[in-house]
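User: My notes are a mess, but here's the protein and zinc ion's SMILES. Can you give me a structure?
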Amino acid sequence: MKRFNKNGRWIMPIGERKKNKTIKDEEKIRYVIKEAYCPNGCNIIDKDHIINGLFGLRIKFRRPGAEGEFIISAIEGDFDKIILSGNLEEGVKDELYCPHCGVIFEKLVKCNCTADADMVIIGLTPELDFNNAITFCNVTGCHNGSFVSSGDVIRHIRLDSQV
Ligand SMILES: [Zn+2]
Ligand SMILES: [Zn+2]
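Assistant: No problem, the inputs look usable. Here's the predicted complex:
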């Protein structure tokens, strides 16, 4: 392998450069949410509620005749929730809002579990970036999406719809 470029500078192979950093960085991005924001930039990490050892994400929900707030886990694939107020109904969709400013969370695509289900998107940066976000279905009990990157979810949905 060539170790020097035309100017005689050292070329560091990508494999060597990344070896020490990537495993931990990937875990932080893919498996555990440390920051989460509403579309207006409110931080929705709730430091009063811990689920499975981590601060959860506080979300307000509303559907015809019912509303309340819950905390969802910051761990990918963990669907444990703390209901702060109101109640959720299995198989029923809720619109999801920021608990601080009340703005509705944006939706990325439809979920195929029920006719009106949506995949809601929550950014991990103060300014919404679809490549740095989590997404999940807004129907209680549907485990579609979970905490994966948006691009992955779009790909999964496309595969599903081809069947
Ligand atoms: Zn907000
Ligand atoms: Zn769904």
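Residues 25-30 have pLDDT under 50 and may be disordered.
User: Great, I'll file this with my notes.
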